[in-house]
Design brief:
- The complex is a heterodimer of chains A (about 250) and B (about 325).
- With about 250 residues, chain A is mainly alpha-helical.
- In chain A, helix 3 runs antiparallel to helix 6, helix 6 runs antiparallel to helix 11 and helix 7 packs parallel to helix 11.
- Chain A contains eleven helices and no strands.
- Chain A has one domain.
- Chain B folds into two domains: about 230 residues, P-loop containing nucleotide triphosphate hydrolases (Rossmann fold); about 70 residues, YebC, transcriptional regulation domain (Alpha-Beta Plaits).
- Chain B has twelve helices and 14 strands.
- A six-stranded mixed β-sheet of chain B has the order 6-7-8-3-9-10, sandwiched between helices. In chain B, strands 2-1-4-5 form a four-stranded antiparallel β-sheet. In chain B, strands 12-13-11-14 form a four-stranded antiparallel β-sheet, with helices on one face.
- The chains are: A mainly alpha (about 250), B alpha/beta (about 325).
- At the A-B interface, helix 1, helix 4 and helix 5 of A face helix 2, strand 6, helix 3 and helix 5 of B.
- Chain A: It is a multi-pass membrane protein.
- Chain A: Its main location: membrane.
- Chain A: Pfam families: ABC2_membrane.
């Protein structure tokens, strides 16, 4: 079963290696935010120094790749519901979950690589981060990718319509971004916004990232983020498997 | 028997907007038995339920009721076993456009349990057999329809399955590619592979299959070898265009050398076993009544005449 997942992952990676340019485009947006937007945030942190601003802002810009990259991962799958690829795989000896898991693994890997690049840029700009925090941050990104990509594949298989899917993803992406405090911590905002954020899984991801970048490894948002994302990932994975089975009618 | 199906049925619940649903009975009780080594065709117009039937046999769609055994295994209870023993080439083909055909071929081979080396050997064999070696590494989206179809077939055969399902294998192909594909299907039979194919082309079923069923509105309306089925209708058919169809129909139906007469608007089709000898009599009879012909032709009966006889309409109109 693991073998089948690895085979699908290998197939996806071969495709990626032939077209390595697209994931690079994915990090342009957060990098531009880091370069052009982060310097405006000096007044939002106690000392206003660049390393401090970057520690606050980088996790949000990394979540942005997850949101605007991995959430769109499912688009390719919609076409495969029509061109017969999924139909063929569904009646092949392939272990069905591997069809989704292989792709999700690819998306996680891409997201982690993108995260390394974004953190690299932030470090060049003056960010300081410990090795342990860095590694945990990568794990957190992988977890976010697992959830976001599974959600995207689930949506793709349930909707099977590019137009509907792009509307829904856009519809959710904006409020999720704002209410997670992706750009500025929600703690700067009023009580109701902070309450609303508690219902947004992304909020915990961003807050856990900020704790890690402060090297505050004991912060409760870190295990909360991992736990929450894991549970959500399992739910969305099960959902996408079900949608895959239901494709046949 | 490589396929044995009893009273297969499939009812879909289709959404019709505003929360309304409608039941669509795509397949309404199909019995099939296909012998090992046969090329078996399901002929019928679009929407007859051919694809749904094949999808049920290939374990893609679960039947609403009925049972089927494919390669000795139940399609519902032993779906995994069935999958190890079949190749399935859907109407859409199932070739990933973004990657080279070779990658899809290798993935399919390795998913069936082959090592990288075994997969490569098998892939090379198939590339060779389908003349795909030179385009093996080109992204599939740059290939022609015929090339893509050959890749689809190669992927379906990668595990050397004893049974292959081909759903509308030649739809959209030009005559040359169609003829080539027919040869490839015949080669499969020569190697002992059983084939179940669906088609809405009469000539394809006629030229290619050992036995066939004609499917219409989710039911089997006729079953047999192409020769048997055509014989049931008559050896030959005379098609006449003329004014006074009703009168002519009555007249011809009374002739003892004519087995059956069917009228469609200004066209009459008269079925008779010996067209060459019957035609002069037929012409004389028309002349005696002063019925003037616009045109007349004598042909061998085709599967379309079989279809017409069983469904009351021509397959050419039914699609």
């Amino acid at each position: 079963m693991l073998r089948h997942t690895a085979l699908f992952l290998g197939y996806e990676l071969r495709f990626l290696l032939r077209n390595p340019i697209w994931p690079v485009f994915g990090i342009l947006q957060p990098v531009m935010y880091l370069i052009f937007f982060a310097p405006l945030l000096g007044s939002t942190t106690p000392s206003g120094s660049m390393p401090e601003v970057l520690a606050m802002f980088t996790p949000g810009s990394m979540m942005m790749i997850a949101l605007f990259g991995s959430l769109f991962a499912g688009f390719g799958l919609i076409n495969e519901t029509r061109n017969g690829v999924l139909e063929r795989l569904a009646v092949s000896p392939a272990w069905p979950p591997a069809i989704i898991l292989g792709r999700v693994a690819k998306d996680m890997l891409v997201l982690v690589l993108q995260a390394i690049l974004v953190m690299g840029v932030a470090v060049l700009m003056g960010l300081r981060i410990g090795l342990v925090s860095f590694l945990i941050m990568l794990a957190l990104m992988a977890m976010t990718g697992l959830f976001a990509a599974s959600l995207s594949y689930g949506l793709a298989l349930a909707l099977r319509d590019e137009n509907g899917m792009s509307q829904i993803v856009q519809f959710f992406a904006m409020p999720l971004t704002l209410i997670a405090g992706l750009f500025l911590p929600v703690s700067l905002g009023p009580e109701w916004l902070q309450t609303a954020a508690k219902f947004n899984p992304l909020y915990y991801g961003v807050e856990a990232g900020r704790a890690l970048f402060r090297d505050d490894l004991s912060d409760s948002t870190i295990p909360t983020a991992f736990g929450l994302l894991a549970v959500l990932a399992v739910i969305t994975l099960v959902w996408s498997m079900r949608s895959l089975r239901k494709m046949a009618g | 028997m490589i396929i044995e199906a009893h009273d297969l049925r499939k009812t879909f619940i289709a959404k019709r907007g505003r929360g309304k649903t409608e039941e669509v009975q795509a397949v309404q009780g199909i019995d099939l038995s296909v012998e090992a080594g046969e090329i078996f065709a399901a002929l019928g117009p679009n929407g007859a339920g051919k694809t749904t039937t094949v999808r049920m046999l290939a374990t893609f769609t679960a039947p609403t009721s009925g049972t089927a055994r494919v390669a000795g295994f139940d399609v519902v209870k032993d779906a995994a076993k069935v999958r190890e023993n079949i190749g399935y080439v859907s109407q859409a083909g199932g070739v990933d456009d973004n990657s080279p055909g070779l990658d899809s071929l290798m993935l399919a081979a390795r998913l069936s349990g082959m090592s990288r080396k075994q997969a490569r050997t098998r892939a090379d064999e198939l590339l060779e057999a389908f003349s795909l070696t030179e385009i093996a590494n080109r992204p599939a989206k740059t290939l022609s329809g015929g090339q893509k179809r050959r890749f689809a077939l190669a992927i379906g055969l990668v595990t050397k399955p004893p049974l292959v399902f081909l759903d509308e294998p030649t739809t959209g192909l030009d005559p040359q590619n169609r003829a080539n594909l027919w040869d490839e299907v015949r080669d499969l039979r020569a190697q002992g592979t059983s084939v179940l194919l669906t088609t809405h082309y009469l000539d394809e079923a006629d030229a290619l299959c050992d036995r066939l069923v004609i499917i219409d509105h989710g039911k089997i309306v006729a079953e047999g070898t192409p020769t048997e089925l055509k014989k049931e209708v008559a050896g030959d058919v005379v098609t006449l265009k003329l004014k006074g169809v009703a009168e002519a129909k009555e007249l011809l139906a009374a002739q003892d050398y004519i087995k059956e007469v069917r009228a469609e608007e200004d066209t009459l089709r008269a079925y008779l076993d010996d067209g060459e000898h019957g035609l002069p009599h037929l012409l004389r009879a028309l002349e005696e009544r002063n019925l003037t012909l616009d045109s007349i032709s004598l042909d061998r009966a085709t599967l379309d005449d079989v279809f017409l006889r069983h469904t009351g309409r021509s397959l050419r109109d039914a699609a």
